[in-house]
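User: Can you predict the 3D structure of ABC transporter permease? Sequence below.
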Amino acid sequence: MHATGLGPPSHRSVAAGLVGRAIALPPLTAFIARRVLRGLAVLFVLSIVAFGLVRLLPGNPADVLAGPYSDAATRARLAQDLGLNRPLTEQYLLWLGRLLHGDFGVSVYNGLPVLQLIKQRLPNTLELALAATVVSILWGVPAGTIAALRQGRTFDRLARGAAFLGLATPVFVFGVCLVLVASIAVPSWPSVGFVPFSDQPARNLQSTVLPALALGLPLGATLCRFMRTSMIEVYEQDYLRTALATGATRLQATLRHGLRNASGPVVTVAGLQLAGLVGNSILIENVFAIPGIGQLTVNSLMQKDYSVTQACILLLGLVYIVMNLVVDLIHPLIDPRVGESR
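Assistant: Sure. Here are the predicted structure tokens for ABC transporter permease:
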């Protein structure tokens, strides 16, 4: 009777369909879950890389604690106390197990918990990254938009020249040049050093200006270049030509229709660049003597402080993962077609 396959479904197939619908996740929730799982996998691989890289460097914490004039017996005893004489696999599994329980270890250099050191310095790095982001957006996005509006004119050539200069110059070169210029032009300006905002707000803002410029100017150069390219592509679209044909000026069409449609690629690049600010802070914080995560990373590397170095590397990886997720979530708000394609 049911040879044609058109009969009623079996109870087993009906139950399977109900269970499948019950455990089905909304598209956005499923997307976030996939990205979180992928991010955890990346962090796991990064933990292995960080653990292995710091041990490839010459020396170890026992050598640093014992001093350069210690004998082999003293260094061996310290290495045993620190667990450095155990197999690397066992050391990694012990560290990973403590990490999963929220224990980042203790600094062998000053005896403070690693999490406490990060909490002390992270606000300074975040403040610097926020200030640099403001600098980059204030000059990069308007300059790229105006350059596209005045394509081939003097402002366009100047903007492209500034963008190429910013892309070709390393951030630490910007930092050194700004320190030299500020020291000569405005000797009273705090070109080096850092004052917490809670102590002296005005002095804190002054000490943040130069490092924010050193980080924000190269980032703004990237935003300017991509914004100009995206806007030029938008000007070739039919909907913008229609807006111009209906009587809207080029500036009005840009503000109403062009900026939002051109900002998609810019947001992607900006997200990756903003994540890179934390990595670039390693250079800038040492140039301007800012007690942040970058300076902590360099100091821990020099002191062979394994726990601190590994935690800083994982923190940098976590910033990249979170920023990529934020960019992916912002895209559908800018262009709904992106959300429909997921």
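Residues 1-7, 18-23 have pLDDT under 50 and may be disordered. The chain is about 75% helix and 0% strand.
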